[in-house]
C-alpha cells in the first residue's frame, strides 16, 4: 500500500513518535493523527484512479488505440486510431502526421475525457450521442426509418417483404410538425467480444465481434458482426462483415457516421467533392424524410462534382446523393480544407454502397460523410417498387461494407 500511495506531500511529512507520552495517551494521539493524515494521503491516489478510468474505459470496456510512428518527412501519414469496443467498436479519433505541422485530428471529436462524459454520462438509453462524435458504425440500417408509432411513442413499426419490423423511435425533429422515427441502427450501445490487435507487416489491425443476435428483438434473424479497422501509413481502412447466423432471411444495410474535421476552422472555404449525379428530395431539413423523388443535381447547390471540390460557403446540407460515378472500383468523396493545406479522400470500396449522405451545418467546422448501402426510409411506400439498397441476407450468407481513408496535401 505504501508504494502504491507514494510519499506524502511535504506539508504532511511529520515525525510520528509512538512511544508513550507523559500523559499516557498514545492510542488517542495516534488515532487523531491518522484522522488528519489519511484523508490527505488517499485523495491523491483516488483522483488518479478516477482519471485512469476516465481515460481508459467507455461503455464498460477498455478503450483501444492502435498506433504507428510517422517515418516520412515529405508526405502525411496516419499515426493512430482510437476505438471504443464498449460502444459498437466506434472510432473515437484518428490522427495523422503532416510534415511541418505535426499531428492533426482527422475526426471532429472531443478528447477521451469529453468522449467518456458524452457516452457514459450524458447519453440516453438509445445511445444517440454515439453518432454525434468520431465515427459510429450504423447497422443494420443507417439513416431514418418511418413507421406506425406505438401508443406509448417508444417504437415505430414498418414492414419488409410483408413481415413487421418494430424499431426504437429514437429520433425526432424540433418543429411541432416533427414525426418520431427510427434512426442509425441498433448497435450504438453494443459491447464487443473477442477484441484483438495484430501486426500485419509493420501495420496494426484491430478486430472485434459483435454477437448482435436479433438486435434486441427488433430484427428478423440472428446476426454476427465482425468489425476490423486497419492502420497503415497511407490509409485507415474500416470493414464490417455482417453474417446471418439465423434461420430466416433478413434485410441488411451498413454505414458509418464520421465527422471529418476542418482543421482551419473556416468552414466557408472548405471544399467537398461528391461524384454523384442525383440527390433525393426531402420534405424539409427538420424531418429530413425523402419524398420518393430522385432529382438531378445539375445547376443546383447539390452539384459537387467539380474537380477539387466545391466550396461549402454558408450552405446547409443534410442530403443523400445517388447514381455514383465509380472510378477504378472506388466511390471517392473528397474533403479539402485549403486554408489548412489539408485534404482527405473517403473511398467507398463495396459495390453494395448505393448512396452517400452528407451532413454539413454552416456553423460547425466539420462535414459528416456517410457511405451507406441504402436510401433513407428504405421500407417507405414513397419509393414504390424501387430498389432502395437493402441487401437480403439469407441464412449463412454475409455482406461486406468497406471504406478507406487517405490524407493528402492539396
Keywords:
disordered N terminus; 9-stranded antiparallel beta sheet; Beta-galactosidase, Chain A, domain 5; 7-stranded antiparallel beta sheet; 410 residues; 3 helices
Describe this entry's structure for a reader:
- With 410 residues, the chain is mostly beta strands.
- It has two domains: 22-58; 60-408, Beta-galactosidase, Chain A, domain 5 (Distorted Sandwich).
- It has helices at residues 2-5, 26-56, 112-122; strands at 57-58, 61-62, 64-67, 77-84, 90-98, 102-105, 135-138, 144-145, 148-149, 155-160, 163-168, 182-183, 193-200, 203-213, 223-231, 236-244, 250-252, 255-261, 271-273, 276-282, 290-296, 310-311, 317-324, 331-337, 342-348, 355-360, 366-372, 391-393, 398-408.
- A hairpin with a 4-residue loop joins strand 24 and strand 25.
Major beta-sheet overview: 9 strands, antiparallel
Structural class: mainly beta
Mean pLDDT: 89
Radius of gyration: 26 Å
By CATH, the architecture of the largest domain is named Distorted Sandwich
- Please state the overall shape, judged from the principal axes of the Cα atoms: globular
Characterize this entry briefly.
The chain has two domains: 22-58; 60-408, Beta-galactosidase, Chain A, domain 5.
Helix and strand layout, with pairings?
Elements: H1 2-5, H2 26-56, E1 57-58, E2 61-62, E3 64-67, E4 77-84, E5 90-98, E6 102-105, H3 112-122, E7 135-138, E8 144-145, E9 148-149, E10 155-160, E11 163-168, E12 182-183, E13 193-200, E14 203-213, E15 223-231, E16 236-244, E17 250-252, E18 255-261, E19 271-273, E20 276-282, E21 290-296, E22 310-311, E23 317-324, E24 331-337, E25 342-348, E26 355-360, E27 366-372, E28 391-393, E29 398-408
Amino acid at each position: 500500500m505504501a508504494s502504491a500511495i507514494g510519499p506524502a506531500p511535504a506539508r504532511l511529512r511529520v515525525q510520528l513518535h509512538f512511544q508513550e507520552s507523559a500523559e499516557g495517551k498514545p492510542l488517542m494521539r495516534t488515532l487523531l493523527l491518522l484522522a488528519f493524515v489519511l484523508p490527505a494521503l488517499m485523495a491523491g491516489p483516488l483522483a488518479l484512479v478516477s482519471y485512469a478510468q476516465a481515460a481508459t474505459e467507455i461503455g464498460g470496456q477498455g478503450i483501444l488505440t492502435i498506433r504507428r510512428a510517422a517515418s516520412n518527412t515529405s508526405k502525411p501519414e496516419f499515426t493512430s486510431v482510437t476505438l471504443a469496443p464498449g460502444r459498437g467498436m466506434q472510432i473515437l479519433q484518428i490522427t495523422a502526421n503532416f510534415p511541418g505541422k505535426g499531428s492533426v485530428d482527422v475526426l471532429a471529436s472531443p478528447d477521451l475525457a469529453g468522449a467518456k462524459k458524452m457516452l457514459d454520462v450524458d447519453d440516453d438509453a438509445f445511445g444517440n450521442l454515439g453518432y454525434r462524435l468520431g465515427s459510429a458504425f450504423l447497422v443494420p440500417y443507417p439513416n431514418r426509418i418511418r413507421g406506425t408509432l406505438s401508443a406509448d411513442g417508444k417504437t415505430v413499426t414498418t414492414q419488409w417483404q410483408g413481415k413487421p419490423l418494430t424499431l426504437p423511435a429514437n429520433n425526432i425533429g424540433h418543429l411541432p410538425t416533427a414525426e418520431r422515427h427510427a434512426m442509425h441502427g441498433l448497435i450504438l450501445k453494443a459491447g464487443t467480444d473477442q477484441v484483438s490487435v495484430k501486426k500485419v507487416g509493420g501495420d496494426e489491425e484491430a478486430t472485434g465481434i459483435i454477437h448482435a443476435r436479433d438486435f434486441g428483438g427488433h430484427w428478423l434473424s440472428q446476426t454476427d458482426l465482425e468489425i476490423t479497422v486497419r492502420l497503415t501509413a497511407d490509409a485507415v481502412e474500416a470493414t464490417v462483415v455482417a453474417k446471418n447466423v439465423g434461420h430466416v432471411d433478413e434485410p441488411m444495410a451498413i454505414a458509418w457516421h464520421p465527422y471529418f474535421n476542418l482543421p482551419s476552422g473556416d468552414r466557408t472555404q472548405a471544399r467537398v467533392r461528391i461524384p454523384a449525379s442525383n440527390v433525393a428530395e426531402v420534405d424539409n431539413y427538420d424531418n429530413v424524410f425523402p419524398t420518393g423523388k430522385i432529382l438531378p443535381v445539375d445547376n443546383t447547390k447539390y452539384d459537387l462534382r467539380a474537380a477539387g471540390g466545391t466550396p461549402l460557403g454558408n450552405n446547409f446540407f443534410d442530403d443523400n446523393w445517388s447514381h455514383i460515378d465509380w472510378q477504378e472500383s472506388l466511390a471517392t468523396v473528397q474533403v479539402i480544407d485549403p486554408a489548412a493545406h489539408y485534404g482527405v479522400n473517403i473511398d467507398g470500396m463495396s459495390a453494395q454502397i448505393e448512396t452517400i449522405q452528407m451532413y454539413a451545418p454552416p456553423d460547425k467546422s466539420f462535414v459528416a460523410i456517410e457511405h451507406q448501402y441504402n436510401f433513407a426510409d428504405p421500407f417507405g411506400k414513397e419509393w414504390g417498387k424501387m430498389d432502395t439498397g437493402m441487401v437480403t441476407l439469407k441464412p449463412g450468407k454475409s455482406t461486406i461494407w468497406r471504406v478507406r481513408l487517405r490524407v493528402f496535401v492539396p
